């Protein structure tokens, strides 16, 4: 049930702060597997704001398997666009031709694309619908002001003046997590001096499900296919240039966009709003404390150069849900640090590895230094000629790896 009322249960089993994809999918995964658990999701966002979210996300094959297990994917699939293949180029804005250095076929298995592009509003709608079916309390337009661990449970103070008691509190409240700060969990952070401009365009010709990543001197320019003759753009620029572009009128903005996009899909037209976000690397030094865990961007914020930010969050969900469900079925305390440390051990290495990888890639490709350009182009060309390595990269991008949690393998908890 979606509600602004406070649950009447004296002690809840789980409170999740953050009502976006990570928070909702975690609640759904756990409640579906163990219906007896009492769960509440605290969502600070304005009511129904997700319905007008213009953004789209690349959802990897492993996350799609999880969404299918959560009984969400059948609703989302007709509205989503499979990524059939991907090309990578390396050039300057002024270059008349952009040679393709690396290509990827889009399937991890016959009939299973390595990723789909899904508009955020459709993903959120499906998760909200499933949460309502499972009678998960979603407390809207409320936030967690403070919390205290008294040993047996968390005392969670809400912005409406009420207090919840819960055996476990999960912070899924974003990269600038307030709850992470209250828990006194430190982070490793450095800014990139870049911003990502996100927008949607319509074009004359069909994209045929092809994703493109153009490495330009200021950073990657990603063209991601949406349903119909539309594409979602993630456009990296240096911070000052991004602010200038965001302040420009539509004519100037579209001219700059066209210079980077090219003419291969015909005339372009900007659709809807444009937004800009600063890029940086944020890695929490710890993911857990007694009766407290971080998930999603609250635990790790990485550069979007690999398109793995949201998918890392879904991998957190699959791992944490599996541990909580196994712990609950054994009749043990789901807030125990023993179980939570299993979650940290499972997830922390991968997120640090991905953070370092994206940081290196961004530094390598976001420059116009001739010797480095030659080195990276030779490297891309070598990978193009190594089918096994290309297949490895596809499997990694899809999230289908050894030791993955059950949900990411398409198995029930």
Automatic annotation (TrEMBL):
Domain FAD-binding: 14-327
GO biological process, one term: ubiquinone biosynthetic process
UniProt-listed Enzyme Commission number(s): 1.14.13.-
Protein's pathway: Cofactor biosynthesis; ubiquinone biosynthesis
Keywords, sorted A to Z: FAD, Flavoprotein, Monooxygenase, Oxidoreductase
Highest taxon of the lineage: Bacteria
Protein known as: 2-octaprenyl-3-methyl-6-methoxy-1,4-benzoquinol hydroxylase
